Amino acid sequence: MPKAITVAIVGSGPAGFYTAEALLRLGRPVEIDIIERLPTPYGLIRGGVAPDHEKTKNVTRKYEEIALDPSVRYFGNVEVGRDVSVAELSDLYDAVVLAVGTPFDRRLGIPGEDKKGVHGAAAFVGWYNAHPDFHALVPDLNVRAAVVIGVGNVAIDIARLLVKTPAEMVSSDLPDYAARVIQGSPLTDVYMVGRRGPNDAKFTNVELREMGELENCAPVVDGVQLPQTVEDEPSERDRRLKAKNLATLWEFARRGREKKPKRVHFLFYAFPVEIFGGACVEGVRFERTKVEGGRSVGTGEYFSIPCGLVLPSIGYRGIALAGVPFDDVAGIAISNEGRVAPGLYAVGWIRRGPSGVIATNRPDGVKVAGHIAADFAEGAKPGRTQLAGLLSSRRVRTVTFADWKKIEAVEIGAAPPGAQRRKLASIEQLLAAID
Ligand code: NAP
Known about the structure:
Blueprint: E1 5-10, H1 14-24, E2 30-35, H2 43-47, H3 60-67, E3 72-75, H4 86-92, E4 95-98, E5 104-105, H5 121-128, E6 145-149, H6 153-163, H7 176-183, E7 189-193, H8 205-210, E8 217-221, H9 236-255, E9 262-267, E10 270-277, E11 281-292, E12 295-306, E13 309-312, E14 316-317, E15 326-327, E16 332-333, E17 339-341, E18 344-346, H10 349-352, H11 361-375, H12 384-393, H13 401-413, H14 427-434
Parallel strand pairs: 1-2, 1-4, 2-3, 4-18, 6-7, 6-13, 7-9, 8-9
Antiparallel strand pairs: 5-14, 10-11, 11-12, 15-16, 17-18
Helix pairs in contact: 1-11, 13-14
């Protein structure tokens, strides 16, 4: 019997779990340790998926099955780079797979970006999702207008969360502290602004149509900005998806002004050039654009949108871990199809950037599991026991999967009627729930 290949997967989001699944399916002896910075598993499924998209989170049932496989062990509350280095993991394990995602906001690089009232999507989404890094953000939503920069699915999630009624959020896992701030806000107008045209918008049609079905909020689209058709689209699939979005936007435009107290305005062909105000945001100045060769180009014509809240939702970037080659422009690890260095691999957003849906991470995991199978006939490094010893010598309080289930039981027990859970938000609360 060959010795088990020892694999450390760093990160317990979709990319990490799909890699573990693919390794288990190799049919070879493997010992997989999933190392997670937070006490809680599941990465963006817990901390990124919108609180009102409960069904999307059901995928964690599959991840739980993987975590409970006898070959898999979960080491929560262990930060690679702080508690243990990548180099140390490489000494202990045959293979180390980075599945750490891209948790930081890309910056706009314009004046005023650091004013009070500007929150990048990673921070804002983290706040309303009870992410330990951001639960203490306390955004000031005592504003009438907000500008969301970008027209992707994250932008549309944020816009929707800002305007839904309490009744529409009943079954969500929106934390009570965020519900109080959002639902107590006098906000009436959200402006989502895309730097290119409607056919270049990145949101998907289900999410767009949702904006037309809200109880208290009307979508506002100016038909003048909408083309009649989708042209120059080489892929038939993309053409169909874009045509669906365009048809939905036209349907919104034809509705005219609905009598609802809130509005989400879809604006295109404008990029932000300055966020203005005193210490606090007072508005965003935009330059109108045209699209040339797929890129937005300024036209020299400007306009402003007064607002007290700006939420740039323009994508994410990762961070360089010591010993991992990093592309600082793209904000991702440098790899060749997932191979970073001998015995070191990358999957998911830290490999390819923040794109695709949850299932897009599955082929990534399959590919890297294939690399590992090709690179190792059998295992040679000790893995788990030595990691556990090292962490205990450093007094790191590791959270096991059984501990996580205790946290989960507390969260489920705290759920109000109709909701699945009320998440604990701080590390202290999460660890206390285990005790
Ligand atoms: P995204 O889809 O890449 O959208 C980013 C948006 O920001 C685009 O409209 C982009 O415009 C714009 N942008 C980028 N840089 C900009 C700048 N400097 N100035 C102005 N605008 C700028 O990213 P995302 O919304 O963060 O989503 C990340 C991934 O998660 C996507 O694959 C998304 O589909 C997925 N996701 C899915 C769901 C869901 O399925 N419900 C929910 C959330 C997220 P350009 O196109 O011109 O670059």
